[in-house]
Amino acid sequence: MNNKFSTLVAATCAALMATTAIARADAMEDLVKAAQAEGELTTIALPHDWCGYGAVIEGFKAKYGLKVNELNPDAGSGDEIEAIKANKDNKGPQAPDVIDVGLSFGPSAKADGLIQSYKVATWDSIPDSAKDADGYWYGDYYGVMSFEVNKDLVKESPKDWADLLKPEYANMVALAGDPRTANQAISGIFAAGLSAAGGDVSKAGQAGLDFFKELNAKGNFVPVVGKSAPLAQGTTPIVLRWDYNALADRDTLKGNPPIDVVVPASGVVAGVYVQAISAYAPHPNAAKLWMEYLYSDEGQLGWLKGYCHPIRFNDLAKNGKIPQDLLDKLPPAEGYAKAVFPTLDEQNAYKAVITKGWDSVGVEVK
């Protein structure tokens, strides 16, 4: 009797799983058709050298045959939010369907009614701590703040934040964005402050502003947005940016100039970014299909190829889905062991301090 009952239960479970799989496949087929009927997707703030997005976008286009309109690749998280607000009634190519923003921007966009709920098929494998329970936003990838160094111009790379104040780094140090709007730049200031404040998160925002005020006073700060071109040209020989961006530059520049990527000895800050669909998306089905692609194994590995740790990394690793050659290209794990993952409340607090207080530093980043 027990054996018969066990067999019946197993058969019932198998039938339910098969039915669920068929339902998901049918739903996915319907979504693909609806997205292809819309014909296009509009993204914003996705540089091709950020997280391997160039290849990810091409992979999406090749798989589904949709056109992708790419708005303002160098925009910051705040700019993405403003683009949604400014285009609420615009159904043309200037209205973003999807956004990729710093973690703290997800809840605020939800509170303001700017994004809509959608749960991807792989929803359960996204850690609960990295997603909105109602599906309005969900973590996509993370990295740590690092020093990207042009070794042709900087003979000895800085090892920690305090080193950046040394006279040998005069007119060399740049942020990777405007600290009033760009999450990457805000995170750089916070990381410097976390080091200066001895790890005290509550004091790091103001400590970071004080650090950059001193850095500027010493003549070491360059008020230019740091990225690969000014780094290679020597305008900004040291750029404070996420490790995945710096590592991608190292590959792209191919030794011209040689690039050193340094995870600082203290003030190691991990930054989680999140995806969301605009509440006013002109192409809502294409937006949902984009999310399905990004959170599929293929999309997640696409980010990993761009040196970003995808949010489903642990799930992929557990199931043996990460090719060894990708694992071999990842940076050494030692520098990541000290990483601090600020909570949403902590991020909101230091973000407010930094964005409102940046003017006190006395310089505008352009």
UniProtKB/TrEMBL annotation:
It comes from the Bacteria. Residues 1-25 form the signal peptide. GO terms for cellular component: outer membrane-bounded periplasmic space. Keywords: Signal. It holds the Pfam family SBP_bac_6. GO terms for molecular function: thiamine binding; thiamine pyrophosphate binding. Gene3D superfamilies: Periplasmic binding protein-like II. One of its GO terms (biological process) is thiamine transport. This is Extracellular solute-binding protein.
